[in-house]
Design brief:
The chain has 12 helices and 11 strands. It has 410 residues and is α/β, with parallel strands linked by helices.
């Protein structure tokens, strides 16, 4: 008792302050004070008797704040993977506003309540650009060549040909209310294979920035031509930065997703442009009452030399329709890329590619597929109409012996 009586109130307050700074850890506090743990306990008992209201008052608020900061920093180190989620990246790092990437489709995509006299809403499906990859014509009998310069040329051709088809070859007396520009993934070549890492034209970051600039031009051209653009986006499998594709957080390891976010940031002040970038692998939206499900298509695997890609694609479509029907997310037509084969049906549209035929297709004896993308119209009464391929290679006009509109042999 005599020993504790010799301790001043200031000494007891200092003991409480040191204990608080060490989060109540008596061992650490006693070491900091240079006393035994028993001695610390004696001081605490004395403080409880002599300073009943001073436990918090004896601690400087600045010290308490500093201690809390250190505590939060420690928690952040262990929770950084979870803390750096999609919303944090979009809002804090990229700087997107809450309105960007909203899931509500613009009003002009809705089924009209009055009589509709136009041809419908056009969709230009862009996927499988593989921007940055090099295709060597010498290795595939000269049937194709691809690099960044050719990619720029083909992207420009895609926009120009789509506009020409819609303006000059499809009659639309009422005009078009806007255009859907669907981005279906595999926009960059990526580094998922050793051969791509060794042969790609540039490092992935340079490729993403280059493609970003090209797509900014394409979107501006479409919005200037059609007035409004709706852009649903899904990631592919080539743009990932992981060895294997992930089921959890798939988009957050994808350069496709990052590219879309920066595009959305660029156009966030333009009310004519609307982005839909879901956090999952599928984008479900409607055009004139027709329900579309956009996915990349890498979930579907298999096929053989007889049926090619149709087998796994049709089986995959059947499974998705069954699953989505069970959760109230039914769709009329599924859109996908991945297979680099243009297939345009009512229930299913598979896109071609910007890259075109390559060494992998040649080595596996796949049928030749030219570089092309899908274009079609959606009508409120008739659904999908006027499906057309957009060929990305401009071929010189060929002279034909027979120029009649139709001919046959007797």
């Amino acid at each position: 008792m005599a020993a504790t009586q010799k301790l001043t109130d200031d000494a007891l307050r200092e003991t409480l302050r040191v204990l608080a700074l060490h989060n109540g850890n008596q061992v650490a506090a006693s070491r900091a004070l240079g006393i035994s743990r028993g001695g610390l306990q004696t001081r605490l008992n004395a403080a409880a008797l002599r300073l009943p209201q001073s436990h918090d008052a004896g601690v400087d608020p600045k010290d308490k704040l500093a201690d809390r900061v250190r505590e939060l920093e420690t928690e952040l180190k262990f929770a950084s993977r979870e803390a750096l989620d999609a919303d944090y990246v979009k809002r804090k790092i990229i700087g997107l506003t809450e309105a960007v990437g909203a899931t509500e489709a613009p009003g002009w995509l809705m089924r009209p309540t009055k009589a509709f006299h136009g041809a419908g809403v056009p969709t230009l499906f862009a996927s499988d650009f593989h921007w940055g990859e090099i295709v060597d014509p010498g290795q595939i009998n000269g049937v194709n060549q691809f690099n960044v310069a050719i990619a720029h040329e083909r992207l420009r051709t895609m926009v120009e040909v789509a506009v020409d088809l819609l303006r000059n070859h499809i009659s639309s007396k009422g005009g078009y209310p806007g255009i859907v520009f669907a981005l279906g993934g595999d926009m960059v070549s990526g580094d998922i294979h050793e051969e791509l890492m060794a042969t790609n034209e540039a490092e992935i970051m340079k490729i993403v920035i280059d493609l970003w600039g090209a797509l900014v031009w394409a979107i501006k051209a479409l919005v200037d031509e059609f007035g409004k653009v709706f852009i649903p986006c899904v990631g592919g499998n080539h743009g990932r930065n992981t060895h294997k594709i992930r089921a959890k957080g798939r988009n957050y390891t994808s350069f496709d997703w990052l590219l879309y976010q920066f595009l959305a940031k660029h156009f966030e002040g333009d009310k004519r442009v609307t982005f839909f970038i879901p956090d999952g692998p599928d984008a479900l939206y409607s055009v004139m009452g027709h329900r579309y499900l956009l996915t990349h298509g890498d979930q579907f695997r298999g096929g053989d030399g007889m049926i090619g890609a149709l087998g796994p694609i049709i089986r995959g479509d059947h499974r998705k329709r069954s699953r989505n029907g069970q959760i109230g997310m039914a769709y009329d037509t599924m859109l996908m890329g991945h297979w680099h084969q243009l297939i345009q049906l009512q229930r299913l549209i598979v896109n071609g590619s910007l890259k075109g035929y390559d060494e992998y297709a040649n080595a596996n004896n796949f049928g030749f597929e030219p570089p092309r993308q899908a274009l079609w119209l959606t009508h409120p009464q008739h659904g999908i109409t006027f499906s057309a391929p957009v060929h990305l290679e401009r071929e010189p006009t060929k002279e034909r012996a027979d120029t009649s509109w139709v001919s046959w042999k007797a």
